[in-house]
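Researcher: I'd like a structural prediction for the single chain below. Treat it as a standalone chain; there are no partners to consider.
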Amino acid sequence: MNKFKMHNDFRALLALAFGAFVQGLAMAFFLFPFEIASGGAAGIAILFERWFEVSYALTIWGMNITLLMLAIRWIGIKSCMKTVYTVSITSLTLWFTEYIQISWNLPMIMSMVIGAVLFGIGVGLLFRFGASSGGLAIIAHILFVVAKILPGKSMFWMNLIVFSLVAYVIDWQLFIYAVITQWVATKVLNQVVLYRSSLKTKENTSLSA
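Model: Treating it as a single chain, here is the predicted structure.
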């Protein structure tokens, strides 16, 4: 029984690492080059990079660790540790890709679609194996526990505010691209979570990073 549990735990850690890695690649190679936000945390990272020249990796990691330290009371230590693990891998991926000079020369729309699909796959694996992508979803979880505000509702408004700010600061077209990215990624995420599942109905899942 212990060997079986260890095997499952190791399999889950590998799946979480792969999901976080794919999420990082999606942002680094396909979304961030065009300053497209995949979620609220990514939008804040884009703004910090433009305003303060802080790397995407540092902003995402620092923001998530800070929020998790504040939220551990409501989220629980096990969930927090999983999210720290996945966020760290995503941030390391973003940091490492900063030193890789690769130019895909893709049109913005094509890059957005590829990035959204990969992002959905990555985050879907995180949800499937009991973790999350962190970011503003942490705040949404706290608001649900404390104030009974539904996560989908709070995530929608928080992301909307961040997307609007990014669009105002950089380009209003980015608001449309961010919403489309969010929609495509969510569709892919749901398919990954429900793949070979006995669930008969799809659940709405909000993205954050």
